[in-house]
Design brief:
Blueprint (H helix, E strand, L loop, with lengths): L3 H31 L8 H32 L5 H32 L5 H31 L5 H34 L4
Helix pairs in contact: 1-2, 1-4, 2-3, 2-5, 3-4
């Protein structure tokens, strides 16, 4: 398997979550159209979507891209086109992090009764569901495949192994963070 195989497989799961986020966005819009005074935002869904985007799409998927693939490409004599494309993808990742944080903040503001937060929720959800399909297509069709030509078979195998190692570490990072977060809130340390 090529090192881009796992990345492209991850894209398919991200696309499924984005479809669910699009459905939630439409549900909220429909709810607002019926009664703007009593719009209902499923805060649990937004928390789940934010966790998915932060953990799976960003830390796991973008983490492998940035820390493994892009780092390896950074050592290569890339064409100007590929170097600029890689830099553009990194900017995309930064934008996604910022927008995810804004969505979470808007959801928190909404729960505090700030009525303007609903507009921010709709804006951020809308931007994310529009962004990810374009971003994924750019990576799948315009970047990943052509960039594999910069690597020999041994380098590809090394990256694939590094991606597997990266995945194995992710569960530990996630739940170490969960426990540390609870400890910090409860001021109860072992």
């Amino acid at each position: 398997m090529q090192p881009i195989g796992p990345l492209m497989i991850e894209h398919r799961l991200i696309e499924r979550m984005i479809t669910l986020m699009r459905c939630e966005l439409e549900r909220i819009k429909d709810n607002v159209a019926v009664d703007p005074e009593f719009a209902f935002v499923d805060a649990v869904f937004i928390d789940t979507a934010v966790d998915f985007i932060r953990t799976y799409a960003d830390r796991c998927h973008h983490g492998k891209e940035e820390e493994i693939l892009f780092a390896a490409l950074g050592k290569k004599d890339l064409s100007l086109e590929h170097r600029e494309a890689m830099e553009d993808l990194v900017r995309d990742h930064l934008w996604a992090r910022k927008t995810t944080a804004a969505l979470l903040q808007a959801k928190n503001d909404y729960l505090l009764g700030k009525s303007e937060a609903l507009e921010e929720i709709l804006k951020n959800l809308g931007e994310m569901v529009d962004f990810y399909p374009r971003h994924i297509e750019k990576e799948d069709k315009q970047f990943f495949i052509p960039c594999m030509a910069y690597f020999n078979e041994a380098e590809k195998a090394e990256m694939l192994q590094a991606m597997g190692d990266f995945d194995r570490q992710m569960i530990h990072e996630k739940y170490q963070g969960v426990v540390a977060g609870i400890e910090n809130r409860k001021a109860c340390h072992i």
